[in-house]
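Moderator note: this is an archived Q&A kept for reference. The question asked for a predicted structure of one protein chain; the sequence and the answer are reproduced below.
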Amino acid sequence: MEFEELKERIKHHEGYRDTIYLDSLGKKTIGYGHLITATDKFVPEKKYSMEELNKVFEYDFQIAVDGAKRVTDYDKLHDKAKEVAIECVFVLGARGFSLFKLCIGHLNEGRYGKGAEELKDSLWCKKQAFNRVSALCEILESIK
């Protein structure tokens, strides 16, 4: 299957919960970082199977791939940069990641080190997800 290592990395970064919990921003979440929306039918305090929550993850992952394709010049990106863009969209949403205009511009032009610098300089890195963003920056910086 495609992107299996990336999926495992995202799952590791997200962690897993089989019941509804509040994320770092106080938003209702379940499984591997699935942000619960008004259309979801999850019941508080109910435990859900890993099989069911893996299906939710796969759905969310495909949304992230589609979002990365919309907000970057995806087909021009190095495979590792595609993965970083997908993970950024998984966490921030396509709209949220689209606000990282300088970072996306650098990625689109193959300046992956500069893209990493922009991620490191973000409030997302500084206030919310330093370890995760640092890991993503290391991936970008490793591209030759």
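Archived answer notes: The chain is about 60% helix and 10% strand.
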